[in-house]
Specification:
By secondary structure, this protein is of the alpha/beta class. Helices cover about 35% and strands about 15% of the residues. Helix 1 packs antiparallel against helix 2, helix 1 packs across helix 3 and helix 2 runs antiparallel to helix 3.
Amino acid sequence: MHGRPRTPDRPAPQVDHACAATTPGAGGQRLRWPLPALLVWALAWTSTVLLVRQGLAPGAALLAGALLAGALALKAGSRWRRLITATGFPVSALLSGWGGTLPAWLWLVPLGLLALAYPLRAWSDAPMFPTGRGALDALPSVVPLPAGASVLDAGCGLGHGLQALHRCWPQAVLHGIEWSRPLARLARWRCRGARITAGDMWSASWSAHDLVYLFQRPESMSRAWAKARGEMRPGSWLISLEFAVPDQAPSAVLDVPGQRRIWVYRVDGALKSRPRRSDMQNTVSDAQRVMPTDRN
């Protein structure tokens, strides 16, 4: 899932407010993700069924439904959400047999299995995108952790982030927390040396950890920083892959070729007023940037 090459002189990414977890609705109300995608899929299926009942060939009706879903997906926010929203209806149509002998409700089966494995509540934090194997290899150059340090992957999914953290600090005590119980069980099987629990990363305390790692959403980062400042010891670390804490100067910004940007924050434990955005931009431009060599 990780991907596109990064150049060291690329401007620091700004929080994309178009990637919000909510979508405007009638009367100014907003719908939490993934409800917008579910509504688009329902509209696509409804239009397809109505067109077939009006005498249109099933293939043409399904094409019209797919075009409708694609058009509505343009307003879904981030690139990944647009992709999920646009492809959900065609995938469900394929699974249903494209209007053949299979019942029309069959497309709900994979959606139900997905909801069991990855509950809707977890989708409001972040979709299940794994951390790349070498995505964090640059961290030890700026984050010195002693042997036995406690490291938490908050929202660990299948354990890809835990494996990347183990590459960085093989002597650390790794912890993971994941809302989905099936995913937590699979992560325990994949990461035998880590202590993984099924639970809510926002309710669980971060106070015992020397470092907390996140690969969340832009909208989650202010909440994560407030939690880190309120619970973690001074001198501990908050690490975010790809997304910055709004209006907070990082301790370091790591640009790794072929990987996502890493934002490094040192928790000082003091409650200070946030800097102005203009000051933040100047500070980030002067933040430490590291171009590590390949450790493989």
